[in-house]
Design a protein that fits this description.
- The complex is a heterodimer.
- Chain A is built from no helices and eleven strands.
- Chain A has strands at about 5, 10-15, 20-25, 30-35, 45-50, 55, 65-70, 75-80, 90-95, 100-105, 105-110.
- In chain A, strands 2, 4, 5, 6, 9, 10 and 11 form a seven-stranded mixed beta sheet that branches. In chain A, strands 1-3-8-7 form a four-stranded antiparallel beta sheet, with no helix packed on it.
- In chain A, strand 5 and strand 6 form a beta hairpin.
- Chain A is globular.
- By secondary structure, chain B is an all-beta fold.
- Chain B has strands at about 10-15, 20-25, 30-40, 45-50, 55, 60-65, 70-75, 85-90, 105-109.
- Chain B has a five-stranded mixed beta sheet with strand order 1-9-8-3-4, with no helix packed on it.
- In chain B, strand 3 (about 30-40) and strand 4 form a beta hairpin.
- The chains are: A mainly beta, B mainly beta.
- The interface of A and B includes residues 2, 44, 56, 103 and 104 of A.
């Protein structure tokens, strides 16, 4: 148990459908990150929140992607009109200070 | 882009030490070296980090060269459960972690 929970663990969706993933972070850590990982590659930064404020977004985050963190607690990542290229593992992480990040187990998205 | 270079893969015999190298020739004075590993279908897991001194914890040792341009992660007695992808990351305060493709370590029985 890493302390960061992600739901669902796996999601299969048809191309064109919308999907939403949830991340429940370690409650006392106010920075939350989303990363995407495709097969054989390291995780790629998507966006991060300081409390409820979204402070940075990667150019990978197209306008079909939106992330929220209401009240600075859990976060959601929504992908609209999914494409096959969106198939990946989506990882959420907390910044735990000097020890870097604690990652969740991720949500594996497959777009068919 | 990642600021580190690692070999794509390595093998190690079970029970032997695994020495994973990392080059970070453009590291800045205030940037730390972090090591993470990722076991199949899980999120990356923190292993160890350091600035310029060698570090050791219950998982591994980190040896950083005096010029800080390279480092080595040492798993003293590798087990089959250490088979994973190992990422070396250079990171300064306020920066987002940038992962490269890492080193795929295979521990062989």
């Amino acid at each position: 148990d890493t302390g960061v929970s992600q739901d669902p663990r796996h999601k299969i969706t048809k191309r064109g459908q919308n999907v939403t993933f949830r991340c429940d972070p370690i409650s006392e850590h106010n920075r939350l990150y989303w990363y995407r990982q495709t097969l054989g590659q390291g995780p790629e930064f998507l966006t991060y929140f300081q409390n409820e404020a979204q402070l940075e977004k990667s150019r990978l985050l197209s306008d079909r992607f939106s992330a929220e963190r209401p009240k600075g607690s859990f976060s959601t990542l929504e992908i609209q009109r999914t494409e096959q290229g969106d198939s990946a593992m989506y990882l959420c992480a907390n910044d735990i200070g000097d020890y870097g990040y604690t990652f969740g187990s991720g949500t594996r998205l497959t777009v068919v | 882009d990642a600021k580190t270079t690692q070999p794509p893969s390595m093998d190690c015999a079970e029970g032997r030490a695994a020495n994973l190298p990392c080059n970070h020739s453009t590291i800045s004075g205030n940037e730390y070296v972090y090591w993470y590993r990722q076991i199949h279908s899980q999120g990356p897991q923190y292993i160890i980090h350091g600035l310029k001194n060698n570090e050791t914890n219950e998982m591994a040792s980190l040896i950083i060269t005096e010029d800080r341009k390279s480092s080595t992660l040492i798993l003293p007695h590798a087990t089959l459960r250490d088979t994973a992808v190992y990422y070396c990351i250079v990171n300064g305060y306020g920066q987002n972690f940038v992962f490269g493709p890492g080193t795929r370590l295979s521990v062989l029985p």
